[in-house]
Design goal:
The protein has nine helices and eight strands. By secondary structure, the chain is α+β, with helices and mostly antiparallel strands. A hairpin with a 2-residue loop joins β3 and β4.
Length: 270
Amino acid sequence: MDRLSLDDIELAALLPGAQLVTGQGNVEETWISEIYAESGPTVAYVKVLNQNQLASEVVCALIGMALNLNIPKPYLVLAEKQNLPGSKKWLDGQNQKICFGSENAKSPSFRQLLTLNPNRKKAIWNILLKWDGFKETAWFDEWIANDDRNVGNVLWDGKKFWLIDHSHSLTGPDWVPNDLLNGKKVLNRFLGESFINNMDQTTKEDWKNLAGAEASRYQVVELATLESCGMMKEYATDEQISAVIKFLKTRADNFFSLACERLQLPQQLL
């Protein structure tokens, strides 16, 4: 299988007029703003994050895009504190900060759809569950150890699905290099225990077969280029960068075993 290369993340500057996003269940401080990127102006959601969460967002967006998952274009956004009035995550005396930008996909989340259509909850849930990319997304989350694929982090415009918000990947929002140990248990919201317990053997076999195919793809993602493609030296330490790359490579190499464990299937009997 050919190697899967990563795109370089694009740089952008935050323009005045950013508006704080409220009422959408955001855990992290998020703004919507015009940005001026290397490719030109656009509108993006801009998140003010700790450096480990920034690394998670950048890394997962780049490798997800390499896998052809539908993820809004990511940016590293240089923000002036004066352009984010009331922003909380700044050190004393800090006037500039690198933030994570995600191009506006102009689509509602499933949380918004469920809130706006309380009488159609079952039908909306079925749209998500029958989505062709549901399994692929679940296995992607297993690889990147994402415990936060809630209904607010999948967008749908009636035709196209988008995956957003990976700040809680790599074992959680507050990870440190020592946390990035292969096999660490995290919640997989698309593959919860009750969901798996309701699968019949044929369904589990289908999930297992896809896991094997996805493992082959994960193993050819050019993870060694994350540092340069993601400009990680600008916001992460050498220790963090090394730990992230090693963590993802080890999980890719052992992914089939992780998937079988998640499906409650003894690998030796498969």
